[in-house]
Amino acid sequence: MSQTQRGRRTVPTQLAAMLAGVTEATVRKWASRGKLTRYGRPGRAEYDIEELYALVVETRIPDPR
């Protein structure tokens, strides 16, 4: 796990996918669609754990409508 500016806790794509229970392709798709912020440098994507958790919770809770 990496520590970046302002105390953000980030993880690489592979670990983010494992934590979310999805594929790495899904994590990349979420980032490309603006649902998840990509941090890191070219060739080394990282994702904020708290942001990832919030997205997973949001996608797993059924819409009551």
From TrEMBL:
SUPFAM superfamilies: Putative DNA-binding domain. InterPro entries: DNA-bd_dom_put_sf. This is MerR-like DNA binding protein. It comes from Actinophytocola oryzae.
